[in-house]
Design a protein that fits this description.
Strand order of the largest sheet: 1-2-3
Shape: elongated
CATH topology: CBS-domain
Number of helices: 6
């Protein structure tokens, strides 16, 4: 299964904030959209990603104010991305080896989607269900 297939089921909606947004405002968007990370995009350029983990470690534990800190100050700017043609196994390997939970999908230098570890796990479960059903029908014949 490819990233494109996952996005065709999940949808390609991308939520983002500007790097000049306050962390507080970014967290409000994350809460409204019920997401654990948000992309930081200025214009069409992917600048970074901000996660709940970034907030916990770089704001809460350092006793900073989310209303006075800008996203660019705490975001992860070294963003690992994937393409529409990448497969599920490579995504799982990346997420495991880099210890990340979200992968922005980039096509021609434009963000076209994002997948989470949850999306990958759901897809793997669906593939396994299909395999089990196929094997059951083969055995039943």
């Amino acid at each position: 299964m490819t990233v494109n297939q996952i996005l065709s089921t999940k949808g390609k909606e991308v939520y983002s904030v500007l790097s000049s947004t306050t962390v507080y405002e970014a967290l409000k968007v994350m809460g409204e959209k019920n997401i654990g990370a948000i992309l930081v995009i200025d214009g069409t350029e992917l600048k970074g990603i901000l996660s709940e983990r970034d907030y916990a470690r770089k704001i809460v534990l350092k006793d900073k104010s989310s209303k006075e800190t800008f996203v660019h100050e705490i975001m992860e700017s070294n963003v690992i991305t994937i393409s529409l043609s990448d497969n599920l196994d490579s995504c799982m390997e990346l997420m495991s080896s880099k210890r990340i939970r979200h992968l922005p999908v980039v096509d021609n230098d434009i963000v076209v989607g994002i997948i989470s570890i949850s999306d990958v796990v759901k897809s793997i479960i669906e593939i396994q269900k299909d395999t089990i059903n196929h094997l059951n029908s083969y055995i039943s014949q």
